[in-house]
Amino acid sequence: MATRTTRTFRCCRFRLRFLAFWGCWFHSMAAMPASLGSWVKPRQSDCIMRYVLGIIYVGICWNMLRYGRYPLIKYLRTASVSILGLAVLSGCTTTVSDDSKHAIFAPYVGKSFALQREQRLCEMENDPNFYAFRRVRLAGLSEACPRQLMTLPRGSVVTVDRVLKQWMPVSGAYWYALGHVDGTDYHFEYPWAYLYMARAPWEPNSVPAKRPPPE
Question: Residue 187 is part of which domain span?
Fold first, then answer.
């Protein structure tokens, strides 16, 4: 009888801890302010940081429930979970590097080219989820354009100033050409490569529409 009662008690205690575990998780996901991810590039950052911080929060809650009667163990494990979580977060930041000297991009950087296809300058939404470095994007006629600034007919001259590589957690690497339209005050960005390298508007039709991304 005593053994059965003990087993029932342990089973109930396990279920309570299980519910507390997931309760902490959902509480952390619901209560975590989005601003915690503001120091990282958005798009994926808020989601990633919410999950990582949620895991830290759940770990601390579980630790307090499991070792509440042993202060030393509780504090040591809490510190370990926090350090591990911060170490993971340190790898969740977006990095930006200048790839202007990359063998693929170097022949274009610092030079002016005539557009081979009609384009337009689009002002993107004032939200970092829709642009990387500049709100003005060089886009094709079939691409989404929240606000068109001007149309650039075939033959318009643009200059490629540099190419930046943006690496983001989960998503991977993006390459953006930053340039300006000659004879105007407009400076733009052009998303040149991600899963594949696109044929830029200043490249001739003989260039494949899709190429392997830079290595």
Answer: 95-211
